[in-house]
Fold:
Amino acid sequence: MQTIEKVKDINKKNEVIRSAIRLFNMSGYTGTSVRAIANDAGVNIALISYYFGGKKGLLEYLMSSFFEGYLDEMESAIEQTTHLEPLLCTRLIQIADRMIRYQQRYFYLSRCVHREMTLDTNLIREFMASYLMKEKYLLEMVFKQEESNHVAIPTDILVMQYRDMIIMPFLHPQYIRRIHDLQPHEDYFRKYYLQYIKYWADQLFAQIS
Amino acid sequence: MQTIEKVKDINKKNEVIRSAIRLFNMSGYTGTSVRAIANDAGVNIALISYYFGGKKGLLEYLMSSFFEGYLDEMESAIEQTTHLEPLLCTRLIQIADRMIRYQQRYFYLSRCVHREMTLDTNLIREFMASYLMKEKYLLEMVFKQEESNHVAIPTDILVMQYRDMIIMPFLHPQYIRRIHDLQPHEDYFRKYYLQYIKYWADQLFAQIS
Structure:
């Protein structure tokens, strides 16, 4: 009996998460009330307070979950490719591939998190200082693995650009959909888009082994 | 006497615009009430209805103003460079330079508009279908000016990428500020960032005249 109650609770919690992602996507965080989430999920408002400590806590939970998975994926991709792949340009494509797959797997969550990150609140500043600083650190490592880096571009600009290529389709999917008629959550898009990243990386680093 | 009243009205209208940009930037459109804008501007709420037909009308006004100026700037930059500059890679840098200057001039407005454009509402869909379709059309023209385009990348990916480089610092300035310690509204940032765009353009198009 207790187990069935637990399963029910987990289901309810998941319903809340699903509803929050859906509603934050549609109307943004500030445009969504905790009541709307509770109604959409078919749960009592008190349950959201109980599990997440309210709407802000729910957003924090979603963002932490996203970034922890995202950075784990990035670390593991960097570690793997560093051992297996001698060419920096190939490594850059493989890492981008894994990060795009990750964001495709959590498509709506990714969009909602990236969008909230463009706000300038205390919460977002904290997330920047932890997660995005770590991301920068990881990507700098990748670019600095080349002792013989002949590229004239400063590392911070490379990091900025590479990161932007990886997240842009998930921060602004409807631009890609409506203006370019491509579907960023689909597999063909990933392949198509990676060709470009490959071209970029080849141009920059092909001469370096 | 009538003239003084008119000037006062224009000042009030400008106050409303300034307050709206400031508050939309801080809390987003959905997170800002029309009352908060009226209070911040020190005007009566009815005046906002009178001039803009409410909060939605105010956002429409801001977005149209931004995009009309933005596209005018782009058209004029393209026209000028097409006549004066034979090299595509140099043209691309000159156009980017003008577009970055434009967004620096309207720094807070740019951020607020770009951020709202990542939502998926009916209003935004209309703006996409008009302004961003025109932007795509203009940029395609630039890339297609080269009959002898030997680059293996599809034009839509080039457009996506080039556009993204131009707007990213203004969609997400606090990423650049907090993570990379650069100030996207300052002149040195423009010069620094343009070096990268130059590198990108040179790599892609230097061989083409």
